[in-house]
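Lecture notes, part 5. Sequence design as translation. It can be helpful to think of inverse folding as translation between two languages: the language of shapes and the language of residues. The source text, in structure tokens, appears below.
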């Protein structure tokens, strides 16, 4: 096992972009991390994955990946190709330049995969990193896969005794063979209902359905992202979120104060509201809760994190209803731009964005896989 001398900076391979529909959000997160990471502690190798899946060496320039509503950031294929170690006995990366020349990038201490959605947040990249013996930040293979799939997340949370929103999972073939039967079955959930791809995030492919005639279009939108979708009952309650960090040295998970999403009437927290400056939602952090309400939310967030075998970080999304807490989703690589709820909750809990980045990297270095 490679050891790192205490008197040198550690090298972080920052992995971003990817093949999912959340490519641009991952790039925006990379911009935030590049701007804020403590350069006295860490050297950074920015590795951008193109929409076609090529691993490229990108400039260490946060401004290239700034989130702009007019032009979303992307990984440009500059012709370079980063090569991972060919065995678990080495941590050295190389790059083939666009002209065909090859040079060493040096040894990597830890990989920070700030990837959202399939082919990055779902355990696939985590499996690659474990095969070649590189430590990494965040959830492991199993918990990444479970956290990415909303159906199996709900199943495990229910098994752990945690209330979730009522739902039905629909496979593409079921909808194509008999849409009328599916429509009749999901009507038991009531209106409004929400139609979501099972394995997507950032509200991509999500639709609010307020009447039967809207269902077909919502299903088409969701099936464009995944071959199975969730139809969830609308839940009446406050929308609150809790950020979780793994415990040090095998300790209990740590939880933040609560953040709240305050929405205009008859709207939901969609992609535009999250990232493009939409004016239908605002974030309040810390949220106004009683001491008992916050304690119960934090208890459930920690329990949900452990129920899926979480490590590193997660954000647990809740509804606070008249009957108590309901978990909506759990994200193992939540939005991590400087304005996202996860860092906002930790900032309100006393941890700055640069300190949060350092803590996550330290957790990745000490986590045993």
């Amino acid at each position: 096992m490679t050891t790192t001398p205490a008197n040198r900076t550690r090298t972080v391979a920052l992995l971003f972009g990817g093949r999912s529909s959340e490519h641009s959000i991952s790039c925006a997160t990379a911009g935030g991390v590049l701007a804020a990471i403590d350069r006295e502690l860490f050297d950074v190798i920015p590795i951008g994955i193109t929409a076609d899946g090529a691993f490229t060496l990108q400039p260490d320039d946060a401004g290239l990946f700034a989130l702009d509503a007019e032009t979303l950031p992307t990984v440009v294929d500059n012709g370079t190709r980063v090569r991972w170690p060919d065995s678990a006995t080495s941590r050295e990366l190389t790059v083939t330049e666009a002209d065909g020349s090859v040079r060493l990038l040096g040894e990597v201490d830890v990989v920070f995969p700030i990837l959202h959605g399939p082919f990055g947040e779902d355990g696939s990249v985590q499996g690659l990193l474990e095969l070649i013996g590189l430590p990494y930040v965040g959830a492991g293979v199993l918990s990444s896969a479970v956290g990415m799939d909303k159906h199996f997340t709900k199943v495990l949370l229910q098994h752990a005794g945690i209330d979730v929103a009522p739902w039905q999972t629909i496979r593409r073939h079921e909808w194509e063979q008999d849409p009328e039967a599916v429509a009749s079955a999901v009507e038991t959930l009531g209106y409004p209902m929400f139609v979501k791809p099972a394995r997507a995030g950032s509200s991509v492919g999500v639709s609010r359905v307020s009447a039967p005639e809207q269902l077909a279009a919502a299903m088409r939108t969701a099936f464009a992202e995944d071959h199975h979708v969730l139809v969830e009952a609308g839940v009446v309650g406050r929308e609150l979120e809790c950020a979780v960090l793994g415990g040090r040295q095998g300790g209990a998970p740590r939880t933040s104060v609560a953040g709240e999403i305050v929405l205009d009437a008859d709207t939901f927290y969609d992609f535009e509201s999250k990232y493009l400056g939409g004016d239908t939602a605002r974030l309040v952090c810390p949220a106004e809760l009683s001491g008992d309400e916050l304690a119960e939310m934090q208890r459930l967030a920690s329990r949900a994190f452990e129920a899926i075998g979480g490590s590193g970080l997660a954000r647990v999304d809740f509804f606070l209803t008249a009957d108590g807490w309901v978990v909506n989703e759990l994200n193992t690589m939540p939005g991590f731009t400087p304005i996202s709820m996860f860092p906002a909750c930790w900032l309100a809990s006393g941890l700055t964005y640069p300190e949060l980045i350092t803590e996550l990297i330290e957790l990745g270095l000490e986590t045993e896989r």
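The translated text above is only one of many valid answers, since several sequences can fold into similar shapes. Confidence is low (pLDDT under 50) at residues 1-5.
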